[in-house]
Structures are given as C-alpha cells and as structure tokens.
Task: structure prediction
Amino acid sequence: MPHDHLSPSGHPYRADDDTPLTYWQTMEIAVRELLIEKGHLSAVEIQHQIDAMDARSPANGAKVVAKSWVDPEFKAALLKDAGSACRSLGFDIGPMHLIAVENTDDIHNVIVCTLCSCYPRNLLGLPPDWYKSREYRSRTVKEPRKVLGEFGLEVAPNIEVRVHDSTADMRYIVLPNRPPDTESLPEEELAKLVTRDSMIGVGLPKHLSELNA
Result:
C-alpha cells in the first residue's frame, strides 16, 4: 500500500465519518431521548439492550440445534412452533414468526431473503456480507444447486433442494443433519459442531474429527 495512504501512526488511513445524520438517525435520537425524558427507559437500560444485541452470535442457534439433536420432544416442539421452543431456552425471539426447517436424507433446505437481508439475528447474530449481496439474493432462488456448489456444498441429484424466502415478519433456521458417530457426545460438545452456514443451509456441520482441530 502506498505510504500516502498511511496515517501518522503507520496504520491505513481511514477518513472520518463526519457526514450529516440521516432522517432515520435523527428520528432514533429524538425517540430515544424522549423515552428517557418521559421515564419509560433509562440510558443504562438502553445500553444494556444494545450490549445484548451485540452479544448475539451463531452460538445461540447452535445450542438450539444441538438440543434438537438430543431431545426428540424439543425437536417436535421446535418444528411445530420454533419461536416458542427457542423462548423456552431463554432466547428472545421478539415478535417475528420463526420457522425451523429440517434437513433429511431426501431434503436440503437453504435460506435467503430476496428483498433485503431479513435474518434470524437473535439466533445467528449479524448476517454475513454475502447473505446481503444482490447476487446471493437473486441467484439462490434461480439456481440453488450451483450457488451451493460455489460454497463447496455439492447436493446429490436425488436430494430435493428447497429454498425458503425470509420476510420482515418471518425468519427461518435450518436444522442440519446430525453428523455421524456423535451418539456419545454431550449436548455442549454437539453445539460446537454446528456452524452458522449449516443453519443457513449453505454448509454442513463439522465432522467429529474437526471438533478439536
């Protein structure tokens, strides 16, 4: 990188983000300050909620998947009403309608949001950049097998690929197949095999041999 792109500290130069506030940023500040002024919320409560949102990660979803692998009753409840089942584990799903779709020997599920980037952030954290890209959003519904192949996931011709389109009110999580030879693993160790991509449907869980790799 040319030296004129370095700051005096020697790090890459980045321009200050001193742009005017957008309409929505101004509205957020106004509503937040009004809620605090009226006593509905405190600044500390708001910061705690922001911290909780920032702490969301795929580890949340992995716990849900691992629980479904070892507890048939929980799995049945999850497939019937994913939101309620996840709340029973202490995860705040909010008002959205959450649907769990199960991979089987005959069906492979993959999730997309064709309109924007709707995503179960409560369980998976922030969506990856590729999930929000126009290419992924448009191509996944047209040529899902080819897209999956580009992620390194080759789905056999005899397996049906189902694409699920998320919306602002409805989100999905994929329940991937449990890896083989994991019958003796406790739930906590099983959760370590669950990957973010396997819960979106563009990947698979780790194999047992990868657990301590």
